[in-house]
Amino acid sequence: QLQLVESGGDLVQPGGSLTLSCAASGSALDAYAIGWFRQAPGKEREGVSWISRYSGGSIKYADFVKGRFTISRDNAKNMVYLQMNSLTPEDTAVYSCAAVATSGRYTIIMDPALFDYWGQGTQVTVSS
């Protein structure tokens, strides 16, 4: 069974950068499309970015992170990353990665209800 563990969350000043990592174990990551989601206190979970099974396949970003965040994956290392730049206080949230098995090489799944595996999340706090 696939297990996901996020890391890299931290306290950062506005305008700063962080790279979140999602480490997979228990199964080969290349069978899964991945999504990054976040949830701020008192708010609903929202999707941040999504990537298909292979790097160089399909990628999608939520409008509020376009041009600031970059998702990537290294299937050989069973890792997914989220590079976050130009962070603002509105980016403060618990960030989680999630995985869903897909047959399509370029398929992106965006609906969180369809994801089968979730990490525990990592806290990102943007504050001066």
Describe the structure.
With 128 residues, the chain is mainly beta. Helices cover 0% and strands 47% of the residues. The chain has strands spanning 3-7, 11-12, 18-25, 32-39, 46-51, 59-61, 69-74, 79-84, 93-101, 117-118, 122-126. Strands 2, 4, 5, 6, 9, 10 and 11 form a 7-stranded mixed β-sheet that branches. The protein has a 4-stranded antiparallel β-sheet with strand order 1-3-8-7, with no helix packed on it. A hairpin with a 7-residue loop joins strand 5 (46-51) and strand 6 (59-61). The termini are far apart.
Give the SSE map:
Elements: E1 3-7, E2 11-12, E3 18-25, E4 32-39, E5 46-51, E6 59-61, E7 69-74, E8 79-84, E9 93-101, E10 117-118, E11 122-126
Parallel strand pairs: 2-11
Antiparallel strand pairs: 1-3, 3-8, 4-5, 4-9, 5-6, 7-8, 9-10, 9-11
Q: Distance between termini?
A: 40 Å
Q: What average pLDDT do the residues reach?
A: 96
Coarse structural class? mainly beta
Number of strands: 11
- The shape, in one word, is globular
Helix content percent band = under 10%
What's the main sheet like?
A: 7 strands, mixed
Question: Radius of gyration from the CA trace?
Answer: 14 Å
SSE order in H/E notation? EEEEEEEEEEE
What fraction strand? over 45%
Query: DSSP helix count?
Result: 0
Residue ranges: pLDDT <50 for 5 or more in a row? none
In short:
The chain is about 0% helix and about 45% strand. The chain is mainly beta and about 130 residues long. A hairpin with a 6-residue loop joins β4 and β5 (about 45-50).
